[in-house]
Amino acid sequence: MAMTKFGFGQPLTRKEDDALLRGAGQYVADVAPQGTLRAVAVRSPHAHARFTIGGLASIKAMKGVRLVLTGADTADLGPMPTPGVLEGVAIDVPFYPVLARDVVRHVGDAVAFVVADTLEQAKDAAEAISIDWEPLPHVIGSLEALKKGAPRVWADRPNLAFETSAGDEAATKAAFAKAARTVSTTIVNQRLVTNYMDTRGVIAEYDGTRYTLTLGSQGSHIIRDIICGAVLKQPLEKMRVITPDVGGGFGTKLFPYREYALAAVAAEKLRKPVKWIADRSEHFLGDSHGRDNISTATIALDENGKFLALDIDIVADMGSYLSCYAPYIPWLGVGMATGSYDIPVAYIRLRAAYTNTVPVDAYRGAGRPEASYLIERAVDNTAREIGMAPDALRRKNLIKPSQLPYTTPTGKVYDSGDFAGALKHAQELIDWKGFGKRATAAKRAGKLRGIGIATYIEACGNNGPETATITLDRDGGVTVLIGSQSTGQGHHTSYAQLVAERLDLPPDRVRVVQGDTDKIASGAGTGGSSSIPVGGVSVDRASRTLADQLKDLAADALEAAAGDMEIAEGSIRVAGTDRAISFAELAAHPKATPDKLTAAKDFGTDSPTYPNGAHIAEVEIDPETGKTTIVSYVVVDDFGATLNPLLLAGQVHGGLVQGIGQALMEETVYDAASGQLVSASFMDYAMPRAHDAPSFVFETRNTPCKTNPLGVKGAGEAGAIGSCPAVINAVIDALDRGFGIRQIDMPATPMKVWSLIDKARRSAAA
Q1: H/E element, 166
Q2: Across 355-437, where does the E strand assignment appear?
Q3: Which of 60, 85, 189, 606 qualifies as a FRET site for 316, CA 20 to 30 Å off?
């Protein structure tokens, strides 16, 4: 078959966009079955307290109220589970109840679930519930929690949730003993709130035998298996989970949440559909948070600036409970601790702490952004301390192509890449050599100019396995069933391109069905940038198998040899002739049995892909206001192979803006004295807008992945991984040039930047 204009590598616009931009999408909040009741969760105003609930008879008698659930009503349910534990690490997972029973452990902890005829009636009843609170001592911040004598989050266990390590401690100590120089860098990777466009929600129905949950997720099967199997303790066939359109997930919609089980219980008791939709402030208080690490990296070098060893200490805040994959997230960062550098030995210590805060779990990148930020900040700081240019120190220590495959001290095996080549090209694109002139011009204008590098690598693209089932329909189109879940990435377009590669059909003839556990037998969901590296491979293999089956059918219909068949523009013809049969005609052929019109293939792998690249940010700071403006931003990425350059650029741009948001403005703030989340709305939690992002320059310099059948490397999280260190390194470069300031933690807000400058000016004046 000739190269199709719709296939691999083609810059097709998203076929999903027309309906979504015209308001024709259907998100979970749009779903409203006949007779739907509305639900509200009652949440704790205290960070830590004992409580009792009284006077429920009067609440249940209020107008419109149908049901009030408390911890006592859900005592027979299983806890919210934590499947993401670490192999070989002793973790005593605390009981995470669907509703707190007598003690709450963070502001926002759920204590009751009220169902009424209308949302207003449910809210009125929730506010009227009488709760007797007995506040208990609380602790905010992981370092505070690990101090001797700190208040315990759990009375029966210390605040140290678990401790583990990786690498070779003895060899690392020996290398440090021989080092000519060591440089330590301590950084804070602050807590974030995932702010997707549509908040979480669920509509639960029960028909007397079976539950149906309609909810926004990153994988319907994961939700079904945990909520039905582990929490409700029911056979999986007793629940159907449907996911409609989803406006962003970023990891946080991958997990099950309490409200899904509560809505199911309520629907069963009332025999009516029950709908719960989080408002934005409730999202801040009830959905898992991200990041929140405090880490120190120490690099040992020889007299020529060659890295000899790396020692890292990480303290990760888990919040009050262990969320679904929470323990595994910082461990993912441990595995990527050495980045793209040739570091012979390393030792990484990881400690996790309970605090009286919202539980923390995966957020775009899930541990790898934390690792990249730490090593890239450490390398930049080391370069400044030893008097070497940051790019020169990187070139001296980046892994060379001739060293690949390269096994890191943590056991990762990098298969492909040219890390120094990506950096060199990025420097050319941003005109690195001309920066001095630009910095001088900025200084004359009263501004500070800085430029910062991040050379990143991450491990992803191996969540699975995933099965794709592809069927030729009667109208000559194709239906793809797959268990991944689009949350805005453009799966309907990208999977259609993979089908087109084998069947030469335009995207509008390919129907992609996701998010329905009744229609799709299994699914790993969408996470870890695996939809194309794993799901895409299964789609490609199923498409190829179906193509072969259709050629056999066509050969019989056209009375020719199967080897002479070729597929073109939705038909199969005898090569070199005008004898052809359309897909629609083929689907109606007497011998076109269902098994010949359908192909299913799965793919799974333990080998991750390793996307990598170089980010360079150039910033300008107004020293009178502390405002940072990104004036130029260049990215050169290695994604192995590009399925669709437009979709790829969109993924990278989105990740870049999320990273810029963390670097310059986003921060989840708790008041240590009260335990209150003081940044619980968009009034107090800053989000990046269009004017905060520059016009990005993005190019790929791909080296095909040797462990993936399509040669692709995961791309969904990369932008968020390289952007934070690039921006902060640029900010520090500007502050160092102007005032000798070499340390600032994210977010580099105008107030924080201005305060450091003001302090430096006062010190110089004194």
Answers
A1: strand 160-167
A2: 406-407, 413-414
A3: 606
Instruction: Sketch out the chain's domains with CATH numbers.
Output: 17-25+462-603 (3.30.365.10), 31-136+195-286 (3.90.1170.50), 416-457+608-766 (3.30.365.10)
185 close to 296: Cβ distance less than 8 angstroms: yes
pLDDT (mean) for 440-444: 98
**How many whole angstroms separate alpha carbon 276 and alpha carbon 116?**
11
- Residue 2: predicted pLDDT: 45
> Distance between CA 265 and CA 95 in Å, rounded?
20
Q: Which of 405, 297, 397, 383 is nearest to 342 (CA)?
A: 397
Residues 71, 152: Cα–Cα separation, whole Å: 22
List all residues 6 or more positions away from 370 whose beta carbon is below 8 Å from its beta carbon.
189, 291, 293, 295, 314, 330, 333
Long-range contacts of 396-401 (CB under 8 A, 24+ apart): 396/304, 396/305, 396/306, 397/305, 397/306, 397/307, 397/341, 397/342, 397/343, 398/340, 398/341, 398/342, 398/423, 398/455, 399/340, 399/341, 399/342, 400/342
Task: Name the phi and psi angles at 59, rounded to 5.
Answer: -70, -45
The average pLDDT across 215-241 equals 98
3 pLDDT above the threshold of 60: no
Q: How far is CA 129 from the centre of its chain?
A: 37
Tell me the two tokens of residue 509: 């003839």
Cα 178 off chain centre by? 40
Q: Are strands 211-215 and 201-206 parallel, antiparallel or unpaired?
A: antiparallel
Peptide bond into 79 cis (omega under 30): no
Say which residues have a Cβ less than 8 Å from residue 460's Cβ, sequence separation at least 6.
Answer: 368, 528, 529, 530, 533, 608, 609, 611, 713, 714, 716, 717
HEC sequence for 238-275:
HEEEECCECCCCCCCCCCCCHHHHHHHHHHHHHCCCEE
Band (pLDDT 50/70/90 cuts) for residue 179 is very high
Q: Tell me the backbone φ, ψ of residue 252, rounded to 5 degrees.
A: -70, -25
Residue 100 corresponds to which amino acid?
A
3-state secondary structure 683-701: CCCCCCCHHHCCCCEEEEC
Cα–Cα distance measured from residue 574 to residue 559, given in angstroms and rounded to the nearest whole number: 10
Q: SS3 of 467, please? A: strand
Number of Cβ atoms within 10 Å of the Cβ of 481: 21
Give the three-class secondary structure for 372: helix
**Contact assessment for residue 696 and residue 420, using Cβ atoms and an 8 Å cutoff:** no
Tell whether the model's pLDDT for residue 229 goes beyond 70: yes
How far is the C-alpha of 147 from the C-alpha of 159, rounded, in Å?
Answer: 9
Q: Are strands 130-135 and 103-104 parallel, antiparallel or unpaired?
A: unpaired
Helix (H) or strand (E) holding 204: strand 201-206
For tokens 């240019």, the residue is: 389
Question: Rounded mean pLDDT of 494-521?
Answer: 97
Q: What is the mean pLDDT of residues 566-589?
A: 95
What's the burial of 281, exposed, middle or buried (CB within 10 Å: 0-12/13-18/19+)? middle
The CA distance from 729 to 451, in Å, is 7
Number of H helices, E strands in the chain: 19, 28
Q: What is the mean pLDDT of residues 78-107?
A: 96
**Cα atoms in the Cβ-side hemisphere of radius 13 Å centred on 34:** 0
639 and 648 in contact (C-beta within 8 Å)?
yes
Alpha carbon distances (Å) from 302 to 96, 550, 704: 49, 63, 34
> 86-124: b or e for each residue (b if 16 or more CB lie within 10 Å)?
beeeebebbebbbbbeebbbbbbbbbbbbbbbebebbeb
Which phi and psi angles does 346 have, rounded to 5°? -155, 155
The DSSP secondary-structure symbol of 101 reads S
Q: Which residues of 545-580 are buried (b: 16+ CB within 10 A; e: fewer)?
A: bbbebbbebbbebbebeeebbbbeebbbbbeeeeeb
To 5 degrees, how large is the angle CA 498–CA 503–CA 505?
85
Between CA 660 and CA 721 the distance in angstroms is: 10
First to last CA, the chain: 77
